[in-house]
Amino acid sequence: MALIETRNLELAYGGRTVLRDVNISISRGEIVTIVGPNGSGKSSLLRALIGAIRPVTGQVIRADGLRIGYVPQALAIDTTLPLTVARFLNLPARVPADTALGALSDAGVPELAQRQLGALSGGQFQRVLLARALLQSPDILILDEATQGLDQPGAARFYQQIETVRQTHGCAVLMVSHDLHVVMAASDRVLCLNGHVCCEGTPQVVADAPEYRALFGTGTQGALALYRHDHDHHHHDHDHDHPHEDAR
C-alpha cells in the first residue's frame, strides 16, 4: 500500500484553481521530486498532503499511523534570542539528548548541537530543520524547496545527505525543488506540475519529455549529466554514458 496518495485532487487558492486532476502515489523508500514553474501549485500540493489545506474536490489518503517529517521552505527565527540548536530541537516538547544528537548526525551536522541558532549559515540552518523533521522517525520526509538560498554545490551536498537519510531510515522522500541542475539525479521519480501533472517518470524520461522541455528548455542537460557523473563516481559506479559537460 502507498504511504500517501491523492485521487482526483483539486486545490484552490484565493478562489482560483491552482491544481486539478492530481493522482499521485508515494511508496516507502522512494525519492520523488516535484518541479514546475512559479505558481504551478507545488507548495499547495505539499500543504494538502500534510493536511494544512483542504481540497476543493478529491481525496488525500494517508496510510494508518503515517508519520510525516516536514521541512519548510523558510522559518523566521529571532536571531537575537540566545537559543542553542539543542534547545531549539527541544521545542515545543523535550526529546532525549541522544535522540537529538542522532537526528543532527543523520542530518550531517552533529557538531552544531551547542551552537547558537542565530550564528548558523543558511545551509547549516537547513540541516537543523532537517534534523528537527527526523526527530519523529518519519515514514515520509516532505521538503518544500529546502535548498533555497544555497549555491549549487551546497544544494548537491544537501541532496546527497537526503539520499543517505533515505537509506538509513528507509523513509520515502517527497521534495519540491527549483534546483533543476541537480535535483533530477537525486530522484527516483520526478513529477512535473503546471496546474496539473503534465509529465512524470524517471529523471531522464521527464528531462526528455516535450512538456518538460516546453517549460524549462534543454539548458539543464549538461549540468544534470555532470552531477550524475560525480554522484555515481562517489558511489563507485562509473557511468560512462554521462561524460563531463559544460554545466552552463
What does this structure look like?
The structure is a single chain. The chain is of the alpha/beta class and 248 residues long. The chain contains 9 helices and 10 strands. It has a domain at 74-137. The protein has helices at residues 42-49, 85-89, 97-106, 122-134, 152-169, 180-183, 203-208, 210-216, 221-234; strands spanning 4-13, 16-22, 25-26, 31-35, 57-62, 68-71, 140-144, 172-176, 189-193, 197-201. A 6-stranded mixed β-sheet has the order 6-7-8-4-9-10, with helices on both faces. Strands 1, 2, 3 and 5 form a 4-stranded antiparallel β-sheet that branches. The longest helix has 18 residues, at 152-169.
Compose a concise summary of this entry:
By secondary structure, the chain is α/β, with parallel strands linked by helices. Helix content is 34%, strand content 22%. It has a domain at 74-137.
The shape, in one word, is: globular
Measured as a percent range, the helix fraction is: 25-40%
Radius of gyration, taken over Cα atoms and rounded to an integer in Å: 18 Å
Number of DSSP helical runs:
9
Quote the distance from N terminus to C terminus. Answer: 41 Å
Spatial order of the strands forming the largest sheet: 6-7-8-4-9-10
Notable traits:
single chain; 248 residues; alpha/beta; six-stranded mixed β-sheet; four-stranded antiparallel β-sheet; 9 helices; 34% helix; 22% strand; globular
